[in-house]
Amino acid sequence: MSRADSRPSRRAFIGATGAVAATGLTAGCESPAPKPSRRPSPASPAKVSPTGRYQAGITLPQRAQPNLLAVVADLGDAVAVGPLLAELGQAVLRLTAGTDPRLLGLPPGDLTVTIGVGPRLVRRADPSLPGAADLPRFSRERIAPQARGGDLLMQICAGDPLLLPVVAAALLEQAGHRIRERWRQSGRRGPNVPVDKDISAPRNLLGFIDGIVGPHTAAEHQRHLWLGGPAPVGGGTIAVVRRMELDLPRFTALSVADQEAVFGRRRATGAPLSGGTAAGDPDLGAKTPDGRYLVPADAHVRRANPNAVGVGLMLRRSYSTDEPAPGLLFISFQNDIRTFTNTLARMDDSDALLRFTTTTASATFLILPGFDQQHPLGAKMFH
Hints:
Elements: H1 3-6, E1 67-75, H2 81-97, E2 112-117, H3 119-125, E3 152-158, H4 163-175, E4 179-188, E5 193-196, E6 199-201, H5 218-225, E7 237-246, H6 248-252, H7 256-263, H8 300-303, H9 306-309, E8 315-316, E9 319-321, E10 327-334, H10 337-350, E11 357-367
Antiparallel strand pairs: 1-3, 1-4, 2-3, 2-11, 5-6, 7-10, 7-11, 8-10, 9-10
């Protein structure tokens, strides 16, 4: 896939904002007309620190920004990985601080940049490290060679969509001839729907709340999300990035009841078909009086259930897409790649949702531990 083919559309970055001026009329000619009033501008989103034990853009901010651009690239064989990552980390610090002139005067707001390295680079550092394994191939994939795998992931998130291509251009310019872009994908998230105390998730293009199940507390993050131990990967995580096309016309043709049977949840509320609340675990053994499962045997919530699969939880930061086709940019974070691969292997067997998806890009990356001015990005892994 060429860069031109995968570049985000113009309308994904141009918002419709307008200032409304109201002019007051006076009763007497002697009184001057009041100055036009201006609608107060919305408060700028809170800045997200790029430094710390973990990279930003995974659990921070807690509610993912509405706009994302993922850029996947390859490194030349002779490129020194450590210096490149250190330079990119310094660029991230300047960009998020608003001091990099390549921002073109745009305020960074809640900008985050999350950087990961692919299996080839992990194996170069140490084949025994987490993240050294490539993703296997699965069914319902139509992936060009250019869109499978990759050495470098740059995940850029922000409330302001204008920032995405500007920041990507700055990072690519910083890397220069040392990297070659493979593909990129932009996406958007709709408004968050509350599903439980301090838990909310957006709807996907199929109309269902997406991302209800996952590690939500700090304790769950430690157990399921972050890689433990000391350097070089402690504080990192494993990301899976998959772009999927969705067959909207065929799904839309289903009745609401049939759509709910595909997911195993109520479309309006996200509650499992077995009853309870959206955040509650589905009762996979619940049956109707005539012996049918309330959550169908091929429902997505059953086939992907972590307890049924026997794996941990994955944190999802997925975004809806409209180019090159309506679909989903699926991004999951987990501290064991088997959390994803075992889940998808079980879904491959008979998940009703997969009948409406086709995967067109796929990659996995070791998200590097956090960094700061004294500890460069990737320094403990690539000396």
